Amino acid sequence: MSDISSAVAITGMGVVSPNGIEVDQFWQASVAGRSGVREIDRFDVSKFACKIGAQVEGLENSIYYKNSWKSLDRSVVMALAASSEALAQAKLDLEQDNCHHYGIFVGTGTGSITTHEASVCKVVAGERLHPLSILRAMPNSALLELVSHCGFGGPSATYSAACTSSSHAIGEAFKAIQADRADLVLAGGTDSPLSPPLYAAWSAMRVMSNWSGNPKSACRPFSKDRSGLVLGEGAAFVVLEKLEHARVRGVEPLGFLLGYASNTTYAHPTRPSVEPEKIVMQAALRDAGVDASEVAYIYAHGTGTKANDGVETQAIKAALGEANAYNIAVSSPKACYGHTLGACGALGCVTAILALRHKIAVPTMNLDEPDPQCDLNYVPNEAQPLKRGRYALVNAFGFGGSNATLVVGTEK
After folding, report:
1. Domain 257-409 belongs to what architecture?
2. Are 198 and 110 in contact (CB under 8 A)?
3. How confident is the model at residue 2, as a pLDDT?
4. In the annotation, is 219 catalytic?
5. Could you say which of 116, 168, 339, 349 is catalytic?
6. pLDDT tens-digit profile of 24-38?
7. Taking the domains of the chain in order of start, what are their residue ranges?
8. Is 335:380 a contact under the CB 8 Å cutoff?
9. 366 near 311, Cβ under 8 Å?
10. What is the mean pLDDT of the chain?
11. How does pLDDT run across 65-117, given as a tens digit for each residue?
């Protein structure tokens, strides 16, 4: 059993998601299985075979949104809103706190892609660009704005490793705190990949869902009739800090980050492999000092593609042993808010902490007939109570062969 006293505390969480803005709304929607997937109305999708996505709606109604952010890339705005919620929950006073040993780690798969695309269109049309165009379009533009917003002077970095980006950001923040390079780190991820050129690129790869019925049913992780992923946008951030630092500030932890591991599937850039996924889960458990028998929940990568879901099932069995694997609740909420790429690991971290705190496993929606090869308890269509353990794994496996697993836990 892991020693919670030596873990890194999670004291704040923030979310911007297609099925809920702010943590409470996001959690309620996830437990109820409410979907944010719909036909895309942000641009013309008539020429694409897949016409659906998971768009964030109503962000401007959040108390954490500021009109002054309108000139920024959508991914940056979502990062600012989610971070503001996390900082508020952690009771950080940005004007009073000594922030010289506080850091910011951001994960993103596509960066400020829509701003970059808009700049290209202006150049082609012979228009002049804004003097700050390069700052607004850089891959680390979200980090730039967060540093300015927070005034943190400690270590900062942007991680871009496809779908594992925010898992790396959170995991490396965890290691920075353990190594005493920072007392507190704001860490998470953001992505807004719903733009015509990027959507066309994903469509060309032929990994998106070809579902022809209700859009809300299009993402079908672990189902026999799954046909591909649904792109989504979103952001999630957590505040990580030393436990003693949180106690001095008078803040109670929401949960703990106990372990992190990463590795690479080198054989193929897009095809997952059982062995590397098994190894990364086992390495994360060793790092956390947690036995497989103590794991209550796994937030699966669960993209709804033919390649991913069967391999992840085999890897979970191999990593934790079949006797344990069949007794663990495993789910993929991506069915409700799509694949948010660089944000998905951070959304998984928030979901896993909430699942352990409430002792509820959120459902995998649209799981009407499981693939026989996907025979674990994938919490089909309705939330389930968690009956064992106080630890959870968060899996993320990305294009380019990047794999990462986080281990989180609660005190009870």
Report:
1. 3-Layer(aba) Sandwich (3.40)
2. yes
3. 60
4. no
5. 339
6. 999 999 999 999 999
7. 4-255, 257-409
8. no
9. no
10. 94
11. 999 999 999 999 999 999 999 999 999 988 777 788 999 999 999 999 888 88
| Amino acid present at 388 | R
The first and second tokens of residue 400, run together, are: 């380019």
Residue 113: enclosing H or E segment and its boundaries? helix 113-124
Using DSSP's 3-state secondary structure scheme, residue 109 falls into coil
State which amino acid sits at residue 144: L
Strand-pair category, 384-385 with 360-361 = antiparallel
Q: Which of 116, 219, 301, 374 is catalytic?
A: 301
Q: Which of 50, 99, 163, 219 is catalytic?
A: 163
CB 271 within 8 A of CB 368: no
Residue 254 to residue 55: CA distance in whole angstroms: 28
User: What six digits make up the tokens of 366?
Assistant: 């649209």
User: Contact 163/202 with Cβ under 8 angstroms?
Assistant: no
Calculate ∠ Cα 318-372-388, nearest 5°: 50
Query: Among residues 135, 178, 184, which one has the least CA distance to residue 155?
Result: 184
Per-residue tokens: 408: 């989180």
**Does the predicted model carry a pTM greater than 0.85?**
yes
Pick the CATH number of 4-255 from 3.40.190.10, 3.40.47.10, 2.60.120.230, 1.10.10.10: 3.40.47.10
- Category of 59 on φ-ψ map: left (φ > 0), alpha (ψ -120 to 50) or beta: alpha
What's the burial of 365, exposed, middle or buried (CB within 10 Å: 0-12/13-18/19+)? buried
- 54 residue type, one letter: A
- Asked if domains 4-255 and 257-409 share a fold, the reply is yes
Structure tokens at 23: 């943590």
Q: Give CA–CA dist 152/184, Å, rounded.
A: 10
Average pLDDT over residues 286-305: 97
Task: Name the residue type at position 411.
Answer: E
Give me the amino acid identity at 83. S
Residue indicated by tokens 């979310």: 15
The span from the CA of 29 to the CA of 283, in Å, is: 32
- 42: helix, strand or coil: coil
Strand partners, 157: 105
pLDDT, tens digit, 9 for 90 and up, residues 218-259: 999 999 999 999 999 999 999 999 999 999 999 999 999 999
Determine whether 163 is an active site residue: yes
- How many CB atoms are closer than 10 A to CB 125? 7
